[in-house]
Design goal:
By secondary structure, the protein is of the alpha/beta class. The protein is built from 20 helices and 30 strands. The structure holds 5'-O-[(S)-ethoxy(hydroxy)phosphoryl]adenosine. 5'-O-[(S)-ethoxy(hydroxy)phosphoryl]adenosine binds next to helix 11, strand 24 and strand 25.
């Protein structure tokens, strides 16, 4: 393959064998799961499905594979809320804590398994009362409060599929997703706490529903922050009022293993997001398996914390479905890591405001597993170790990372400063589409290398191929998955052709993940990021095409090109280049207004870090924008944080470079 497609870098080879505390554990150097799965991956997954889950009706076929469409555990019937709640309560674990929830201001709520079950059953009855039934879809647009997992689990109780929309998204994103899924209901809150203040949500739902007619009939609103909201008569209902009258008796419905569980939208290379579909039995099997083994779970004593947002797949699989299926105690936190509790605020001395919120939570709850993202780790590195050292983090046993390649320096920092130099780090590679972990070390088993996600989990087969689809056994290549896996996406909602085209056409017979990777001489996998034009900003996948549409949507903009430039903190930063429509004057104000326009249109996460106004865009002879050149120009500059530059040098540099370029 050509070097231009995937840049391959070599890293220093450091290895960390399983530490002494794991050498004595149940998994100590135990290769047997890998051996069993290599021998017969279908039988392996069938055993996991039967051991980790409780079925109403056993399945009679493990896998039906009509490339690219897989069905797992055919004929089996189960209910996810039953697996997450009822069976633990029935087993006498009703008083065990499911969630230690902490709000950003510092308020706390605790839910035992039986309390959670009560709330879920009541809310399932509320949904039934709104006329929802098996197969219907609803949207959820909520802050990180307990009502969010309660709403999701209530859906699973009666076979309704949820589509969680990240709370940072705008009204346009809400209505697009509701339309695509034909959602009948939206569950939201007045607001959620973010960076010390309520951040409004309900008003975005109002704007979304005002923008055009839709299938949404009802809106249920949680009162989280006591902020003023407008309730539309007949359409909008308060969560607490509906729940006050709901019965807590709602038997879980036995559902087919392939019943649609949820749709989660992910950015693609075109402006229209893809509705990734996950179903019931296979998804829960792989998520429960990985949550148990990759975090070396001791369900009776652990206090596990995934510090992600439920608006993304990480939260779906590893805050809600995995931990609850395994009956463990989790921490759930509403806010941002640098927002102190009300009671810890030190007057107006902002310098004393806690950059230690995470470490404080770990110490107070005795957290045993921390699962976070490289972008967060890099932020902590910037803050320094002073705050970390004030806290006792000795309860931690396993550290996880997800979302983008972790650079070896960040890995080492995590290992030394948070893990006390001995806790294993699990660098977990997976995607919304894969549902659960795919490539990751296993604590107690795998010798890790900082920056490498190491190896596939038992039962999953990944292979690298070159441009022509030939196997690569050492060096750089495209990451493909060559056998179906239980939690794989079942397709793109409403668009089977696009499913085939996006994931299965580049290399026939293989799932193409869109990522590049390197295999080293020990067979370790090193992920290299996306090979297409999807950017990864703080672990969020954002497509350049979507942002370009947002830029061109501004009345003064004629044409736009977007690139992801390397950024120390967020991984990649969004940089836009725009050509103005005639009659508009370039100015710093206008470029600021254009940046803001994208945030309003697509949500604050999509706001470009910088927008350069240019007279023309460098193009190849065939008319393709020279993205690499634009990225180089952006990377050669200090992009600042919020201010935008009317940088005349940019235009000159683009011209000179374009003149020198031999790109076809
Ligand atoms: C990237 C998040 C390297 C990758 C679970 C993938 C990673 C995309 C890792 C999926 C990792 C995720 N190392 N890259 N450990 N984890 N990625 O759908 O590019 O939000 O394709 O799922 O994130 O992002 P998504």
């Amino acid at each position: 393959m050509s070097d231009a497609t995937i840049e391959v870098y070599e890293t220093e080879d450091r290895t960390f064998p399983p530490s002494a505390e794991f050498a004595a554990g149940a998994l100590a150097n135990d290769q047997s799961l890998y051996d069993e799965a290599n021998n017969d991956f279908e039988a392996f997954w069938a055993r996991q499905a039967r051991e980790l889950l409780t079925w109403y009706k056993d399945f009679d076929q493990v896998l039906d594979w009509q490339l690219p469409f897989a069905k797992w555990f055919i004929g089996g019937e189960l209910n996810i809320s039953y697996n997450c709640l009822d069976r633990h309560v029935d087993a006498g674990k009703g008083d065990k804590i499911a969630y230690h929830w902490e709000g950003e201001p510092g308020d706390t709520r605790t839910f035992t398994y039986s309390q959670l079950l009560d709330e879920v059953a009541k809310f399932a009855n509320v949904l039934k009362g709104m006329g929802l039934k098996k197969g219907d879809r609803i949207a959820i647009y909520m802050p990180m409060i307990p009502e969010l997992p309660i709403a999701m689990l209530a859906c699973t109780r009666i076979g309704v599929a949820h589509s969680v929309i990240f709370g940072g998204f705008s009204p346009d994103a809400i209505i697009d997703r509701c339309d695509d899924a034909e959602a009948k209901l939206i569950i939201t809150a007045d607001a959620g706490y973010r960076r010390g203040a309520p951040s409004a949500l309900k008003v975005n739902v109002d704007d979304a529903l005002a923008s055009r007619a839709s299938t949404v009939e009802n809106v249920i609103v949680v009162n989280r922050c006591d902020t003023e909201v407008t309730m539309a008569e007949g359409r909008d209902h308060w969560w607490h009022e509906l729940m006050a009258n709901a019965s807590n008796q709602c038997p879980p419905e036995p559902l087919d293993a392939e019943q649609l569980l949820y749709i989660l939208y992910t950015s693609g290379t075109t402006a229209k997001p893809k509705g990734i579909m996950h179903t019931t039995g296979g998804y829960l099997t792989q998520v429960a398996f990985t949550h148990k083994y990759i975090f070396d779970l001791k369900p009776d004593t652990d206090v596990y914390w995934c510090a992600a947002d439920i608006g993304w797949v990480t939260g779906h699989s590893y805050i809600v479905y995995g931990p609850l299926t395994n009956g463990c105690t989790s921490v759930m936190y509403e806010g941002t890591p640098d927002t102190p509790r009300e009671q810890d605020r030190n007057g107006d001395d902002r310098s004393a405001w806690g950059k230690d919120r995470l470490w404080d939570i770990i110490e107070r709850y005795g957290v045993t597993q921390l699962y976070t993202a490289p972008t967060a780790i890099r932020t902590f590195m910037k803050w320094g170790t002073q705050e970390v050292e004030r806290h006792d983090l000795s309860t931690l046993r396993v550290l996880g990372t997800v979302g983008e390649p972790i650079n070896p320096e960040a890995w080492m920092w995590y290992h030394e400063h948070i893990g006390g130099g001995s806790r294993p780090i699990v660098d977990t590679w997976w995607q919304t589409e894969t549902g659960g972990h795919m490539i990751t070390p296993m604590p107690g088993v795998t010798t890790t290398k900082p920056g490498s996600a190491c190896q596939t989990i038992p039962g999953v087969t990944a292979e690298l191929v070159d441009d022509d689809g030939n196997l690569v056994t050492e060096g750089g290549g495209y990451l493909t998955i060559s056998k179906p896996w239980p939690s794989m996406l079942r397709g793109i909602w409403g668009d089977p052709e696009r499913f085939q085209e996006t994931y299965w056409s580049r290399f026939p017979g293989r799932y193409f993940a869109g990522d590049g990777a390197r295999l080293d001489s020990d067979g370790y996998l090193w992920l290299l990021g996306r090979v297409d034009d999807v950017m990864n900003v703080s672990g969020h996948r954002i497509s350049t095409a979507e942002i370009e549409s947002g830029l061109v949507d501004h009345p003064s903009v004629a044409e736009a090109a977007v690139v992801g430039a390397n950024d120390d903190t967020t991984g990649q930063a969004i940089v836009g280049y725009v050509i103005l429509r005639g009659g508009n004057e370039a100015s710093a104000e206008l470029s600021e207004e254009i940046r803001q326009h994208v945030a309003t249109k697509l949500g604050p996460i999509a706001r470009p870090k910088a927008v350069f106004i240019v007279p023309d865009l460098p193009k190849t002879r065939s008319g393709k924008i020279m993205r690499r050149l634009l990225r180089d120009v952006a990377e050669g500059r200090d992009l600042g944080d919020t201010t935008t530059l009317a940088d005349a040098g940019v235009v000159d540099e683009i011209r000179t470079r374009a003149a020198d370029s031999d790109e076809e």
